Amino acid sequence: MRRKIHVDNLVSLHRGERGVMRVRANSELGVYRGLGIAHATDRALQMLMTRIIARGRGAELLDPGLVDVDLFFRKMNWQSDLAQETAALSTDARERLDAYVVGVNHVLSRSVPWELRVLGHRPEPWTIEDIVLVSRMVGYVSLAQSQGELERWIVECVRAGVGVEHLEALFPGQLSGLDPSLLKKVRLTDQLVPDAVRELASHSRLMASNNWVVAGHRTRSGQPLLANDPHLEINRLPAVWYEVVVECPDRYAVSATIPGLCGLLLARTDDLAWGATYSFADATDSWVERVKDGCVLRGDEWAPLRQRVEVVRRKGKSPVEVTFWDTENHGVLDGSPDDGEYQLATRWAGAFGGARSIEAMLALWNAKTVAEGMRHLGELEVSFNFVLADSSGDIGYQMSGRIPVRGPSRSGLIPLPGWDSDNDWQGFHAASELPRVKNPECGFIVTANNDLNHLGVVSPINAPMASYRADRIAELLGTAEKLGAEHMKSIQHDVHSKQAEHFVSILLPFLPDTASGRAVGDWDFSYDARSEGAEAFERFYAKLIELVFGPVLGTETVAYIIAQTGILTDFYANFDRVLLSERSPWFGDKTREELFEAAASAALTGKPEPWGKQRGVLMSHMLFGGKLPRIAGFDRGPVTLVGGRATPHQTQIYRSAGRLTTFAPSLRVVADFAVPGWESCLAGGPSDRRFSRWYYSDMRGWIHGQYKRIGPARR
Predict the structure, then answer these.
(1) d(CA 676, CA 373)
(2) d(CA 434, CA 63)
(3) What is the helix (H) or strand (E) element at residue 19, kind and residue range?
(4) ω before 249 within 30° of 0 (cis)?
(5) Among candidates 530, 548, 640, 659, which has minimal Cα distance to 595?
(6) For residues 214 and 395, what is the distance between their CA atoms, to the nearest angstrom?
(7) CA-CA distance, 213 to 227, in Å (whole number)?
(8) Is the bond into 638 cis (omega within 30 degrees of 0)?
(9) Fewer CB atoms near the end CB (10 Å): N or C, the chain?
(10) Whole-number Å distance between alpha carbons of 208 and 650
């Protein structure tokens, strides 16, 4: 039975049995108004929390202890140019955004989430500027911040005495311009992104994902197939994604949207479908700045830093006043001029964008071909890998993003002297120069955060994820003569690890005659819940990391990287490159085989356990997670996460500042152009209302691989 949510002469909203909102409108403007109503009806808490945090007002409105979170967002200064950025929007785009804002405020004027009322917050109306602000927050905290963390970690390694030859083994060909003596002078005053920011930023990290598309000549129906499963932190409620069906008289779309943003991020229309993964393109750089007397060195002269004072109000306490120092073209200084002569300044390419991305997303509603879709998606200022398919049978791939043009031999991975203008960004690459392809001969395109530089005129990726997942997906696609939607679903649930295949092929001669050694030897490389081989192999892998990198980095440092950070989680390809090398400076006076044997002997003792035994995670409410008794129902689970770091059904679990976090398929989508709409399952439910039946309603289907079909009412 369908329940009527809202009806007037412009738009009507109904909820189907699976809880997915259906928006029916008499025009495109009505579609966006209805989308605003749907977002505010089901995800107002998520939207308003995101805005509070992005504005740097958490200590004022939520908890006085959130000063560090507020200071991070004030430091980023994303609000400074919102008025001029929105002024750059075309008249058509502004009309559509106005319609969305009217829809959001239609709901907020009648109802505010009780959680915020309890905290005494009465929200201001939603604005177009809020849409741009949320897009910047999602683009940085969810995506680009990991690249900045990696660059910061390299500086920490140099300061700790790690040699150039060791770093070159981790990042071959990416260290041009590295000056260890200069980096050792740099004072690192704080983390690039505080752990509390990641905990409270309402949009989880969209780091590791899969998407692929198959041409009609490879499918049973003769029509293209598209699959997408964004991997991000799923142990949060509500789910990040919000699915919706929007229809007007001559058009429809099924979409996974982000509440607060007016656009169809992942979608299928009558004519076109597109899905996204993060590209790992480098759009964040740091420079070493020489600072003196409130000025920064530029060539042979000293230029004044821009002083910016921010006042952070605290609920029930006195405000905190902090001064930030902005450079002309290298972003924000790490600290203050009093914190040392040499400091880092960091700039993200998407920090002052938004209008161009909004225009591109809105244009997709009327795009009918892969070529049109590639053109529009290429204009997005945040870097994604998009795969596309259309009703005429074309398939394609396009990377998006504002990717800086750097000087010759400058990869962007190493902080370079800020006083040398040759190290400045020299504009941004055109979308036509970025990796892209249309209708490849093999009949399919796969992206899984792997290196796709070979498909571009330029090479924007300098630290990709390993190709294991992409290789496995391509292997499975290549072995079937004619593919159908069921093949796509099966691949999305595949837990076979090609990483383990590589390592075990070297390890086999050194396996001890123990229960754990035999479990690895008899293993089929599957990370299912019952697999004892997976659990034993992971003990070996952790010990091998410790034995190889511990003598140089320090055993405690390595243990911290493994258990408490995302460095190994995100960039394990760099570590594997060393571990699988026949020779490496990281090996010291030992051979690879000796290290494998030592790791096996030390780790593969005792009886192995099923892989799923320690893989249960609690789904935690975004505001009250862990603060209320379980019986209150805000937190759900635990949910057992199968798969590993290198399986198509990827799951990774680690802790950050004592808090459990995850990567896993947050949403699974399969679009078959032989039928309208798509099939999907969501890690959560449509609503952020704890007492709604739709709060956790899709989770059973997600756990058991049971997809729902959503599409237009009549086609």
Answers:
(1) 19
(2) 43
(3) none
(4) no
(5) 548
(6) 7
(7) 6
(8) yes
(9) N
(10) 8
Contact (Cβ atoms closer than 8 angstroms) between residue 675 and residue 31: no
DSSP 125: P
Question: SS3 sequence, 267-303?
Answer: EEECCEEEEEEECCECCEEEEEEEEECCEEEECCEEE
Burial 144-168 (b: 16+ CB within 10 A, else e): bbbbbbbbbebbebbeeebeeebbe
Q: How many CB atoms lie within 10 A of CB 512?
A: 17
Burial zone of 249 (CB within 10 Å; 0-12 exposed, 13-18 middle, 19+ buried): exposed
The DSSP H or E segment spanning 601 is helix 592-603
- Torsion, Cα 82 85 88 92, to 10 degrees, reads -60
Which residue has tokens 């308003």?
A: 48
Query: In this predicted model, what pLDDT tens digit does every residue of 221-242 receive, in sequence order?
Result: 999 999 999 998 899 899 999 9
169 contacts 578 by C-beta, under 8 angstroms: yes
pTM (predicted TM-score): 0.95
Q: What is the residue type of 604?
A: L
The amino acid at residue 646 is A
CA atoms within 13 A on the CB side of 628: 13
- What was the pLDDT predicted at 204? 47
Give burial (CB, 10 Å; 0-12/13-18/19+) of 1: exposed
Nearest partner of 246 among 223, 224, 262, 228, judged by Cα: 262
What are the tokens at 295?
């000025």
Closest CA to 519 of 642, 612, 595, 611: 611
The residue whose two tokens read 């992409």 is 470
Angle between helices 28-54 and 128-139 (to 10 degrees): 60
For position 139, what pLDDT does the model report?
79
Per DSSP, the three-state class of 494 is coil
Among 705, 626, 557, 644, which Cα is nearest to 235's? 626
Q: Which of 613, 621, 667, 661 is nearest to 640 (CA)?
A: 613
Q: What is the DSSP string of 35-78?
A: HHHHHHHHHHHHHHHHHHHHTT-HHHHT-GGGHHHHHHHHHHTT
User: Could you say which residues of the chain have pLDDT below 70?
Assistant: 1-3, 141-145, 190-207, 564, 655-659, 714-715
**Tally of CB atoms within 10 A around 565:** 17
Residue 159 backbone dihedrals phi, psi, to 5 degrees: -65, -25
pLDDT at 53: 92
Dist. CA 31–CA 339, nearest whole Å: 52
Q: Which residue from 492, 547, 499 is spatially nearest to 645, judged by alpha carbons? A: 499
pLDDT of residue 186: 92
Per-residue pLDDT of 19-62, as tens digits, reads: 999 999 999 999 999 999 999 999 999 999 999 999 999 999 99
Give DSSP secondary structure letters for 351-408. TT--HHHHHHHHHGGG--SHHHHHHHHTT-SS-EEEEEEETTS-EEEEE-S--B---T
Residues in CB range of 177: below 8 A, 6 or more apart? 409, 410, 414, 416, 423
Q: At what angle do helices 567-579 and 498-507 cross, to 10 degrees?
A: 40
Partner residues linked to 386 by β-bridges: 276, 398
> Can you tell me the distance from the alpha carbon of 446 to that of 143, in angstroms, rounded to the nearest whole number?
20
| Paired tokens of 92 | 């058509």
As beta bridge partners, residue 268 has 254, 273
pLDDT tens for 199-208 read 454 444 445 7
Location of structure tokens 């600290």: 335
Q: 342 near 289, Cβ under 8 Å?
A: yes
Distance in angstroms (rounded) separating the CA atoms of residues 275 and 281: 17
One-letter amino acid of 294 = G
Which residues are registered as beta bridge partners of 310? Answer: 322
